Amino acid sequence: MNVSLTPELDRFVAEKVSSGRYTSASEVVREALRLMEERDQARQAQLTAFQHELEERLASLNRGEYEDPEAVRARLEQKSRERKRQSA
């Protein structure tokens, strides 16, 4: 497989190899792809969890179970803070 890189990316890869952390450009690309795959899997897991929670909430609404709007807001704000901490 041949891959064309922009001059900036080519320099970036060369810097990584020069640093001694990687032994070749291929190793840099493999690591980048592995990290991209991890990120994609994490995003998919978050989406799946969100969809599951949404389905649960809709089922609750269909059963006539409602949650106080302030409690919902507090829960969502807490989850947002947790996500920000995890991504930092």
TrEMBL record:
GO biological process: regulation of DNA-templated transcription
Segments of skewed composition (Basic and acidic residues): 61-80
Gene3D superfamilies: Antitoxin ParD1-like
Keywords, alphabetical: Toxin-antitoxin system
Keyword Transmembrane helix among UniProt keywords: no
Region (Disordered): 61-88
One Pfam family here: ParD_antitoxin
Family stated for the protein in its record: Belongs to the ParD antitoxin family.
Protein name, entry field: Type II toxin-antitoxin system ParD family antitoxin
